[in-house]
Amino acid sequence: MHKKLIKKLEQLLGKERVLQEEALLHAYAFDGSPEKPRLPGVVVIPENHDQVRQVVSFCAQEGLALIVRGAGTNLSGGTIPVRENTVVLLTVKLNRILEINPQDLYARVEPGVITLDFARAVSKEGLFYPPDPGSQAVSTLGGNVAENAGGLRGLKYGVTKDYVLALKFIDGLGEEIKAGARTVKWVSGYNLPGLLTGSEGQLGVITEITFKLIPPPKSSQAILVLFNSLQRAAESVSLIIAQKIIPCTLEFLDKFTLKAVEEFRQIGLPTSAQAILLIEVDGHPEQVKEESELILKICQKQQGEVFVARDEEEKNKLWQARRDALPALARLKPTTILEDATVPRSKITEMVLSIEKIAQKYGLDIGTFGHAGDGNLHPTILTDKRDKREAQKVEKAIEEIFNKALELEGTLSGEHGIGLSKKRFLVQETGLATLNYFRRIKKAADPKNILNPGKVVE
Ligand SMILES: Cc1cc2nc3c(=O)[nH]c(=O)nc-3n(C[C@H](O)[C@H](O)[C@H](O)COP(=O)(O)OP(=O)(O)OC[C@H]3O[C@@H](n4cnc5c(N)ncnc54)[C@H](O)[C@@H]3O)c2cc1C
């Protein structure tokens, strides 16, 4: 990047808050996706809202692309620079929990706070922040809002968007926008917090978030069910929901994933099963008891072998197994492509069986796990992108998975966003009129097209 531009950024933020050495820039050239890494022009580390505003204004003035980066764990290429001389803005220093209000049940935070740190701080006050992406130990709340992250508790408690009450953000011209309120109800104008949530850094740079909090459940019960048929496991998901039971978590792991997790962690998971369900119900103790019993009955009728966690330690072991699914699979081959095609819950069996067929058709290693209760599966393709012949097969398999999800009236992405990786498929789901509407919104929020350009829509 041109020395004059760097100097100006150093004047705005201080020299130590501007990284320009190539060796350092490499650390910000990639994210959690398999997209090709690309070096940013410079990395800046503002410490407060005002410095963020100055950086955005500077980029708007100079026409420089700006990418906000939390922990860089997104799985859709959302933080990969596309243009030359991109400024990457790290939120690592914007990491203060500003307020936890137990009377009005909300909290205000800066965007760089780590998700798990926030959940723990809230829990210390006797409150509950449910969204728990698998990456919560490292992901940031700003990244969660910008991706509308889900998690294991999405089925009962919803996803990030269900907790965002208000936002402060900077638009593409450097203007400060305040959206929403800390009240339970709010209809004073357009629902801008809703618009910004899931906007993947394209409509504004979020500098403060107000989250709704709720009281924690009084008790919970974790259940593991082993199935010797993939189909019966998937069918059980629909049967449980059809009984009007909404577990807080209802996760699915296929045989391939199960084996990878057991090899990785060695916690004694039976690798002979074709698939497992990990289920947790929570709420009032009486309700937990009643729902657990009903779930056991349904799963046993489906020929599942049922284990009930006896204590907190056993429960934590089960959830660790689920959280290990992606890292365990990722160890097996050089390239991991994690998809998150999502279907209506009643179509989960058809989707699971179709993924299996697609894997066989192309001779690919695909481990499937995910939030089956939400219809949100993660078919994970393990490959080596240097193998050009296999790469072509992977492309075709991904296309077939997406087509199947859309045919079943599902969606391309349940929680990982579009970014770079799914951009070319988006029109298939939305149609051209909707895509053009997105484009007009982007143009209004960011007339100079500096905010995360080249992603989602152009
Ligand atoms: C092992 C693993 C497990 C995962 N499990 C889940 C899961 O269960 N559920 C799920 O939903 N996702 C999951 N993810 C994906 C990822 O963790 C989430 O998308 C997460 O929300 C990204 O947070 P981040 O801080 O890493 O954001 P980044 O990757 O840094 O950024 C993500 C996007 O948000 C934008 N952004 C970041 N901060 C701001 C801000 N302040 N203002 C405006 N835009 C901003 C960025 O520009 C980018 O477009 C997982 C990822 C991994 C690696």
Describe the structure.
The protein is of the alpha+beta class and 458 residues long. The chain has two domains: 1-216, Uridine Diphospho-n-acetylenolpyruvylglucosamine Reductase, domain 3; 219-407, 3-Layer(aba) Sandwich (Vanillyl-alcohol Oxidase, Chain A, domain 3). The protein contains 16 helices and 16 strands. It has helices at residues 3-13, 22-25, 49-62, 115-124, 141-147, 154-157, 192-196, 230-242, 255-265, 285-301, 312-323, 325-330, 348-362, 388-407, 426-430, 432-445, and strands at 18-19, 42-44, 66-69, 87-90, 97-101, 106-109, 164-170, 176-180, 205-212, 219-227, 249-254, 275-283, 305-308, 335-338, 365-371, 376-383. The strands form three sheets. Strands 13-10-12-11-15-16-14 form a seven-stranded antiparallel β-sheet, sandwiched between helices. The chain has a five-stranded antiparallel β-sheet with strand order 5-6-9-7-8. The longest helix has 20 residues, at 388-407. The chain starts with a helix and ends in a 13-residue tail after the last helix. The relative contact order is 0.12. Bound molecules: flavin-adenine dinucleotide. Flavin-adenine dinucleotide binds next to strand 3, helix 5 and strand 9.
Mean pLDDT across residues: 95
- Supply the CATH class of the largest domain: Alpha Beta
Using the CA coordinates, give the radius of gyration.
22 Å
The CATH architecture of the largest domain can be given as: 2-Layer Sandwich
Describe the sheet with the most strands. 7 strands, antiparallel
Percent strand equals: 15-25%
- Give the number of DSSP strands: 16
Low-confidence stretches: none
Number of domains: 2
CATH topological fold name of the largest domain: Uridine Diphospho-n-acetylenolpyruvylglucosamine Reductase, domain 3
Q: Give the fraction of residues assigned to helices.
A: 25-40%
Strand order of the largest sheet: 13-10-12-11-15-16-14
Bound ligands, named by name, code or SMILES: flavin-adenine dinucleotide
Distance between the termini: 24 Å
- Structure classification: alpha+beta
Shape: globular
Total of DSSP H or I helical runs spanning 4+ residues = 16
